[in-house]
Amino acid sequence: MKIAVFYRIDFEETRARMDEEAAKLELDLTWIRYKELKVIGADILWREINIADFDGWYFRAVGNELEWSKLLQLYAKKHNIPVIDDYLLSEGPLRRFKSVMSWQLQDAGVKYPKSSYVESMSDLEKELKNWDFPLIVKMSKGGRHGMGTFFLKEMADFKNLEDKLISRDEMSEAEGKKGIDLRGFLIQEYIANDGDYRVMTVGYKCIGGFKRMPKVEKLVLNQSEGNSVGLTEVPVKIAKVAEDAARVLGVEIAGTDLVISDKTGEVYLIEVNEAPQFKVFEKRTKINAPRIILEYCTKKFRK
Asked: What is the four-CA torsion angle of 149, 152, 158, 160, rounded to 10 degrees?
């Protein structure tokens, strides 16, 4: 079976593990970076290969490749090519924005922190005055390893947040990179907890998870920080919320972050991440994530 894996940034360890398990399953994985694609007439090609010739497509990430994502969405529908994740053929790549995810989850009744969305820094400053602290602010376009997630203890922290984002923007431009788009902010209530859970779901089914110990609450909440421990069994109520959320969003392969409220004992979904990395997951749980993912791909694409 020939599977095209679309990606934006090359994470060598993730790629090596996928290739290792693909070889054992006798699968032909072809890694295709978006910028290597081209449209010739009515066809989309990669190194002169028509990508309609693959048995299925697995999107490891979409990121800011919105134009290619839309073209590939249209091409997949035209040629009846099965795709992972489901949301790419329905809502499309705009589902990745945290504002859209927040809307879908709350509309479906998934337990989610109280949220508001504003466009500009000035609107963010005004809206924060209507909230109780502490709280969380997220950039709607996200950021790797929680670098787009911020913890504000009090209103005075807004100035620190503003300075931090402007500094990042100026640094990017100085390095010749595209600056940060300082617009689109999601405000969320802070759910006090004794640590967060990372659960991996494949085909909307929980395959395992681990718990990360509480981190030092600072301005930038780096999700990769803090010690973590594998779970022999994911609590049923945690697994159910993770599975429900993945299905609502159409994310077939997901790494979902959840917490249990110290006050109410209820499970709150914090975030659903598409195409998660699995280095820490495998280390903590001893579960062969890439093999399960590829077996799921094979089963879906054969249908």
From this structure: -80
Q: Is residue 68 in a domain?
A: yes
Residue with tokens 């595209």: 178
8 A C-beta contact, residue 4 and residue 58: yes
**Side by side, which strands form the sheet with 185-189?**
115-118, 185-189, 135-139, 149-152
* Domain end among 163, 190, 217: 190
Residue 82 and residue 129 in one domain: no
169-189 confidence digits (pLDDT tens): 788 777 777 656 788 999 999
Contact between 215 and 233 (Cβ < 8 Å): no
Q: In this structure, are residues 22 and 294 in contact, taking their beta carbons and an 8 Å threshold? A: yes
Q: What's this model's pTM, rounded to 2 decimal places?
A: 0.88
Q: CA 227 to CA 35: how far, in whole Å?
A: 37
